[in-house]
Amino acid sequence: MSMQRILFTFVLGLVVLGAGLVGRAGAKEKAADAEKKRPNIIYIMSDDHAAHALSCYGSKINKTPNLDRLANEGMRFDRCFCTNSLCGPCRAVVLTGKYNHLNGFIDNRASSRFDASQPHVAKMLQKAGYQTAVVGKWHLRCEPTGFDYWNVLPGQGQYYDPVMIEMGKKSKRKGYVTDLITDSALDFIKNRRDPSKPFFLMYHHKAPHRRWEPGPKHLTMYDDQDIPEPPTFNDDYKGRGTAAHSTEMTIEKHLTPNDLKVKPPKDLKGQALKKWKYQRYIKDYLRCVASVDDNVGRLLDYLDKSGLADNTVVFYTSDQGFFLGDHSWFDKRFMYEESLRMPLMVRWPGHVKPGSVSKDMVLNLDLAETFLDLAGVDVPKDMQGRSYKPILEGHAPDDWRKSMYYRYYEFPAVHMVHKQYGVRTDRYKLIYFNELEEWELFDLEKDPHELNSVYDDPAYADVVKELKAELARLKKLYKDDDSVTGPVWKKGDPIRRGNKKKRTVKNAKK
Ligand code: CA
Asked: From CA 142, how far away is CA 491, in angstroms rounded?
């Protein structure tokens, strides 16, 4: 081989090697680019925040300027419903994308535990290369699984100086819970994040859950004003069955001095006492909401400042709705609108049209599927909801759901709301109180406050027939064969109050 030829081969070799290196580096960059394009997902969930206590939903009693940003800069969903209006069960549905009779967490009784060994969305996103984290309220009576970082409250948690469990280690924190949970969310984003990966953060507030303890900044907010009462404040439950008449969640009788923080003035009786209690209750509730609003504002500001906002999808919702004096109640559990409805706003710059509103019916059941879809991960076939990413992008599928299935199990228990299941369509709602064997039907167009069941009205006979068929179809679709019921209560069984032991139904079985 001549010297020239050797030199030529050497140079050619260098060129090929160099091209190979450049090519490899290019592929790596491409992969990094693709990784950058997978959006971060921040799922913000408060606890018991009813849509009618958000100004973007037309609240008549408060303002939520920071939360409203998500509606103004993203999409507001006007028909978002929960499948079981209770804290723990809702969370189990969010994680698994399955109804409670399948994920096993049907109610909040002490014996209920979430089986965290089952597949759920955080595990799936983690496996797909997302860095995953959960901070704040967890409430599933087990340690979180599928999260690279977690820092959660034990059980319901405390408002002031709460204990938090960080990666298995318990410690008492100084401060107000809504601020502390936000500090933790920001700490994850700022300091614990792996910038080479997209992240999935579940940022769960305890507020505004009962016992509604306001933060130090909002203790005197609303002091100088009366909060308007809702139109159904003096509901007498005429036109509805046993369940509405027999709950233990009325403003008048069931708000305790512990809830109200002071004893009511002795001279107050009847309606005057009820009005006084409502003001105490609703002001503390709204003060707690104000703190959530401030803190979500802090998080959104950081996303803006850091440049993360552009490629981060932000969800805001609550684990279900709440009665804000509506029907004379606090709490939730019923399939009635105030309790069934969840607020939901989603911001995704460049994909969701700012200020858009969706009237499509979406559920907490759809969240896991939507997160997976956003991350480009295939949705497992046994998940029961559906991704609404197309709705976010302005292309609602023609075959989107036109009805939803609801089921509540926790009875007998605190607040004594009877077991029920039912179907809601755009216009109607059929509820079956299965242990009472009573039905209610509401025409939401004519009776938006659900004051008069028209179940026995012959004019609605066809509607009843259709809805019963739809209910049966949904039960079959979601594989609910009534084998999961919770403790059985039979008509005529005594329910006693006071002594907890006595209160248990005699023949209750698990
Ligand atoms: Ca809740």
From this structure: 34
Q: What is the pTM of this model?
A: 0.91
Q: Using one digit for the tens of pLDDT, what is the confidence trace for 464-486? A: 999 999 999 999 999 999 999 98
320 CA to middle of ligand 1, Å?
A: 6
330/361 Cα distance (integer angstroms): 25
388 has a pLDDT exceeding 70: yes
Please report, for the domain that includes residue 87, its CATH number. 3.40.720.10
Residue 249 pLDDT: 97
| Residue 97 Cα to ligand 1 middle (Å) | 18
The rounded Å distance from CA 7 to ligand 1 centre is: 76
**Intra-chain end-to-end CA distance of the chain, in Å:** 89
pLDDT digits (tens, 9 = 90+) for 342-368: 999 999 999 999 999 999 999 999 999
For residue 86, the CA-to-ligand 1 centroid distance in Å is 5
The rounded distance, in Å, linking the Cα atoms of 101 and 229 is 37
Across residues 61-79, what is the average pLDDT?
98
Instruction: Tell me the CA–centroid distance for residue 87 and ligand 1, in Å.
Output: 4
Range of the structural domain that residue 187 is part of: 31-401
Residue that has been written with the tokens 């606890």 in this structure: 47
Total structural domains in the chain? 1
Residue 106 lies in a domain: yes
pLDDT band for 493, please (50, 70, 90 cuts): confident
Distance 42 CA to ligand 1 centre (A): 19
Asked if residue 354 belongs to a domain, the reply is yes
